[in-house]
Structure to design on (165 residues):
């Protein structure tokens, strides 16, 4: 326990805080909107979450991104406050558009149907086995085809006429 050096404004008492050691991360994997080949990466959304902190804390850090761009183009996407990840902290970069199923605005929104299926499947061993077989234990093309089928079933459209995701 550690005693706060700052008194509470209303009572004047000092709060007791619990101090814990930081986690030691072997590796961090984060997804960003844009990055250069060296690992400088930027987030275009409202909240960068804590990706930059994970990257700095990890022994090795890997960045996936929507698009790898030339270093000189990074500044054109957003102001410098969005360039939160430095190449000095990054081990590797891969271009992986639409990699996360969570939103990556402005590039794309949240896939609600997939998120709901994932959350539901995670509650039952048999459902999870089926989800894993269909979406995780397959190659990229099959995964994308199954995600497109799911999206089409939610919208009533035909995935064969939709084009690529």
């Amino acid at each position: 326990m550690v005693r706060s050096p700052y008194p509470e404004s209303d009572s004047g008492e000092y709060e007791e805080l619990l101090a814990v050691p930081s986690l030691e991360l072997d590796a961090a994997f984060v997804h960003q909107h844009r990055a250069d080949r060296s690992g400088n990466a930027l987030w275009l959304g409202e909240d960068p979450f804590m990706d930059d902190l994970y990257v700095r804390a990890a022994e090795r850090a890997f960045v996936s991104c929507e698009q790898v761009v030339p270093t000189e183009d990074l500044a054109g996407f957003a102001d410098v406050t969005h360039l939160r990840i430095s190449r000095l902290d990054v081990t590797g970069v891969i271009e992986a558009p639409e990699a996360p199923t969570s939103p990556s605005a402005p590039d794309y929104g949240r896939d609600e149907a997939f998120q709901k299926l994932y959350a539901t499947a995670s509650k039952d061993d048999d459902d999870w086995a089926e989800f894993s077989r269909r979406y995780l234990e397959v190659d990229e093309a099959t995964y994308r085809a199954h995600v497109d089928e799911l999206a089409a079933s939610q919208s009533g459209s035909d995935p064969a006429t939709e084009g690529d995701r």
Observations:
- The radius of gyration is 21 Å.
- Residues 161-165 have pLDDT under 50 and may be disordered.
- The CA atoms of residues 124 and 130 lie 10 Å apart.
- The chain has two domains: 25-95, 112-162.
